């Protein structure tokens, strides 16, 4: 269950990262509220997951999900370029997340 909460926390990290792009320096109220709410929820679910998942694994997986998600959204929504080096790097991050999950007893 805590692994599901960790994945959800990582997805919420993607939401708030995207939200930051729309806040215009927190000058737009609706995107700002959504961004802050996603931040708070993301940290909350991360903290719950860390009850049983070690810090070194939980935090790294959380950040990894956020990085991969932000790049995917950047490429598909914001039309950012996806070079071969960027694609290979994403695959390495995903492999690292899977490896950390497999190394965990929780």
UniProtKB/TrEMBL annotation:
Transmembrane feature ranges: 33-50, 57-78, 84-102
Keyword hit for Protease: no
InterPro entries documented for this protein: EmrE-like, Small_drug/metabolite_transptr, Small_multidrug_res
Keyword tags: Cell membrane, Membrane, Transmembrane, Transmembrane helix, Transport
SUPFAM superfamilies (alphabetical): Multidrug resistance efflux transporter EmrE
Signal peptide bounds: none
Protein topology in the membrane: Multi-pass membrane protein
Pfam families: Multi_Drug_Res
Subcellular location as annotated: Cell membrane
Keyword Transport in annotation: yes
PANTHER family (alphabetical): GUANIDINIUM EXPORTER, SMR FAMILY PROTON-DEPENDENT DRUG EFFLUX TRANSPORTER SUGE
Matches recorded under NCBIfam families: PRK11431.1
Similarity annotation: Belongs to the drug/metabolite transporter (DMT) superfamily. Small multidrug resistance (SMR) (TC 2.A.7.1) family. Gdx/SugE subfamily.
Name of this chain's protein: Guanidinium exporter
Species annotation: Alteromonas ponticola
